[in-house]
Amino acid sequence: MQVVYHDVIIVGAGLAGLRAAVELAGKHDVAVLSKLHPLRSHSGAAQGGISAALGNAEKDSPEWHAYDTIKGSDYLADQYAVEVMCNDAPRAIIELEHLGVPFSRFDDGHIAQRPFGGHTKSFGEAPVRRTCYAADRTGHVCLHTLYEQSLGRNVSFYDEYQVLDLCMVEGAVNGVVAIELKTGRLLLFHSRAVMFATGGYGKAWKTTSNAFANTGDGLGIALNNGIPLEDMEFVQFHPTGLYQLGILITEAARGEGGVLRNGQGERFMERYAPSIKDLAPRDIVSRSIYEEIRTGRGAGPMKDHVLLDLTALSKEKIAAKLPEIESFAKIYLGIDPADEAIPVLPTCHYAMGGIPTDVNGRVTCDPEGSEVFGFWAAGEVACVSVHGANRLGSNSLLDLIVFGRRAGKDISRFLDRVCLAPLPLATGSADRVREMIGRFQGRKDGETIAAVRSDLQDVMMEKVSVFRNEEGLSDAVDECAVLRKRAADIRVSDHSRNFNTELLEAIELQHMVNYSTAVAVSALERRESRGAHGREDYPLRDDAKWLKHSLCFLGEDGKMSVTGKPVDLSLAEARAEFAPKARTY
Ligand SMILES: Cc1cc2nc3c(=O)[nH]c(=O)nc-3n(C[C@H](O)[C@H](O)[C@H](O)COP(=O)(O)OP(=O)(O)OC[C@H]3O[C@@H](n4cnc5c(N)ncnc54)[C@H](O)[C@@H]3O)c2cc1C
Question: What is this structure's pTM?
Answer without folding.
Answer: 0.97
